[in-house]
Every structure is written in C-alpha cells, then in structure tokens.
Amino acid sequence: MRSRNLRSDALRALWPWLPLWLVVALIAIFQHGPMPIFSTRALSGAWEMWHGHHFLVPYLNGEPYSDKAPLLFWLIHLGWAVGGVGDVWPRLLEVLIGAVELVLAAALARRLFPDRPWIGRATPWLLMAFGYGFLFGLQIMYEVLLAACVLGALLALTPGPRREAPRLGWFALAVGLGLLTKGPVMLLHVIFPWLLGPLWNDWARRERKRWYLGGALALLAGMAMLLAWALPAAWAGGPAYRDQLLFHQTAGRVVDAFAHAKPFWWYLPLLPVLIFPFALWPRAWAALALLRRPFEPGLRFLFVWLGPLLLTFSLVSGKQPYYLLPDYAGFALLLAAAMAHLRERHGGPARSAWLAPWPLALVSFALALALIALPRLVASGQVANRWFAALAPASPGFGVIYLLLGLLLLLRGRGELRRIAFAGLVGAAAANGLFSLTLWPAFNLKPAATVLARAEAQGRPIANLGLYDGQYHYLGRLTQPITRLYDGQALEDWAAAHPDGLVIDYPAHLRPADLRDALFVQPFRAVWLVIWPAPSLAALRAGRTPPEPRSPTMLYPPDDPRYGALR
Question: Which of 27, 55, 257, 459 sits at a 20 to 30 Å CA gap from 182?
Fold first, then answer.
C-alpha cells in the first residue's frame, strides 16, 4: 500500500508542469525543419553511419568524424530501425530526453532538500522556462542528452530517504553514458561534487576512504565504457581517426584550453541571458542576495557543483553559451532554494510590490508594442532592416500574445513563479513560432539539398567553397562526399577536372548578372547561398566570360523581395 501511495505521489508531482512542457515543446519543435548547422550536422552524422553501416565509427562528409561520441547517433538509429529514416523520431527523441531532464532535476531537488518540498515543485518550473535552454533544446544536439546523464550521475551521489551511501553503480553507468555522448567533457560536469564530497555530504565526511575509493572505481568503470567503444573504433577508423580520437580530443584540447581565445570573464555577463526570464524578476535577485550562512547541505552541493565548474569553463579558451546547458538544472535549483529561504524568512511569499516581476512585464509590453507597430514602421520606411521587414507580416498577432503575457505577469496573488514560468515558456515558443513563419526560409537548406541530390543522382560531382559541416548530406540523403575548395587555383583546377561539377558558394553580395549564370540562388542568413556550374564560377572569379547557362536559375523562396534589387 505504501509503495502504491509513493507512486501516486510521484505521478501527482509531475502535474501540471510535465504535460504543459511536452505540449509546448512538441508544437515548437515541429514548426520548421532541421536548423543549420547544429541539427543538420548531427542528422548528417547519423545518416552517414546508417547508410554506410558504420555503426562503430561516426562519419561526416565521407570521413571518420572524431569530434563526437556515438550515443546520440545510436539512439537515432534505434528509431530509424523501427520507422525508417526521417527527422520525426530525432525530434521526438529530443523532447523525450528533455522530459527526462526535467524529471531528474525535480528528483535531485527532493534529494538535496528533503525538508523543503516546495523546492522540488519549483525546480522544474524554473528549468523549463529558461528561454535560451528551451530554444536550444529544439536543436538535435548532444547537450540535452548530456544534461540527463549529468543529472543521473549527480542523483546517484546524493543520499536518499532509504540509503545514505552513494549508488556507485548508477554513478558509473551515468558517467559512462555521458562519456559516450560527448566525450571527456562529461567528467568536468560531475567531478567537483565528488571531489568535494565531504563539504556537503555527511556520509562522505564520515566514510572518506569508501567515498573516494568507490567513486574513483566508478569513474574508471565509466571510462571503461567509453574505451569499450573508443578502442575498437580507433582501430576500425584508421590511423588519422585514431590519432584524432585518442590524442587530439583529449590531450590536444587540454593543452590548448588555457590559451584564452575569449576573456576569462566571458560567461559572467552571459549568465543573466542564460537564466532569462528570471533575470528580470527582482524577487529572484533579492532571494539570492539574502542567502546567509550556515548553508545547508543542498546549498553546499550547488556551490561545489556550479562554482568550480564556472571557474573551469572560464579558464578554457573555447567558450560557447550552450556549453553550460548540462548544468542548467543547477541554476534552477539555486534559484528555487534561495526563494524557498526567502519565503520562510517572511512566513510565506514576500509580497513587496518592488519584488514583483514588473521589469519582465515592461519588457513584454515593449516587445508587444514594437511587434504591433512594425508593419506600419516598415511601410513608412522608418524601419529598413530586411530582418524586421520579413517579420512585419506576422508580427501583430505575436504582439498580442506578448501583450497578454505582460498582463499575466502583473496579476497579484499566489502562483507568481508559475505565472513567470508559463510566460517564459510560452514567450520562447512564440518567438520560435514567429521565426518559423517569417525568417525560416532564410535558414531552410532543404531546397538547396534537393538540387544537390538531383545532381548527385546524375553523377555530377559537388564542391563547397570553404568549411563544410555536413549541412546537406542528411537533407539531400547524399551518399558521396562534397569536396571542400578554396578560391584561386584550387577552384580553377577543380572546375577544369570536373566540367559538369557544381560548386556551392556563400557570397556576401550578388550582381544582377549572377542570376543568369547561377543554377540556384537563395538568401541564407546574412549572405547568399549560390550553387554554380563549376566552369561558370571559375570563369567569373578569373574575370572571363562564363559559358552560356544550360538551365534557368532557380530562386528560393521565389517571392523574396531581395531578388527584385538584383534584376
């Protein structure tokens, strides 16, 4: 009877945040196609493994791909084995993994703060409302899966109601899965709570030898899981892949990690953006500022997790906002714990008017007014930016959404955190919807990939000027590599050797005459995407008259006003 009640309580704890998040995420993730470059690159890696039956060694553009471990690809393959190749399953997979992340974050909150159930209820609301995390979670990428592995590992270290000692077997499994997701960086996300265990865990303080010996063995077991794949893969992938996988991805990156390509403080001003919309909630900042010693074990855990981690990532030269996504739950936990202390200090939620989310409401109102007025501003010529002009046809309807969200934020009474979380989640989904309806054609590579697939079926070779990240292989189901070229003699030589070849280029500007000689033209982000017959492009770059085109230029999207300026 007690176990049945516990299961019933656990299911009730998922309501209503998990159904809400699933509905919003599923709607948002299917609003447009795979986004370049993150989603298209991951899907192309999975596609090349699948088509070439290279299930041990990841491939990208026909070559072994040493930058990533294969777990996400394998999970994509499981769905493809049942339902065939497509991007429906990878999107569903991302949403399901995101749901697992939320459930694990709530479970970790209950473990860390067993006497404060409000923190367990608040944490998933905070986590799912982080706008950057939600939008990036719509990408088919490795960070969401890595976040689930990180939370699983940390959950195994924390004491439960029935067992104070860590669950080292589960810790080893979660670490191993994280290593198979994104390689050795997994260790950075979990190592500090283990190394500094006696600072937050009573059992670790009493049983230091067992804590460190058992944890070390578990980490070795997790690394053994990685080596069980990496060693056979290194052997199968050849000498170049073996060198990249075993040395460049570990020792090479560590050596280069402290040559500051970006300044040490780079993440600091980024943190308010990463925790938006709560960065504009005065109550959250007041709660953090009022935290006082002595800190309970749950807070000490968060400090030893997030503090050394942020310091380490600040020292590493390569910095990206999404590198911190696997630790987003830690930010949500810290905010939830701080607000729980604020509630207790005031005998309930503090009702001061200045602590209400009025800055966020003002931002929502300002955005609403801007979106509603945008068509008139564009029509009058007061706004000439092409991105804003593209947004204008659909912007008023979304302006009404943000107006309603602003009004929601100004409501008084209980449930303030949930209202902010709802507004943050819906606001991020609305931004994604506006992007999908207006700007997506400038990011959609499917038409270009269709042209390339037709050329490959005709036996025509394809080259790409500059770096190629696999963005066409999955979309066009390409099976042959795309040659990477650079301007100058290399282009001349390749065009001479492949007179029927095509070359993909990304010029910042086009001339009207280019519409005559190109095979395909598309506005792409802030530049143009052009597919040229190789002899035509080589002739143009050398100042010669290109040969007469054999087929008319295809324009995508055909009604884009930017083509008018070229005619």
Answer: 27
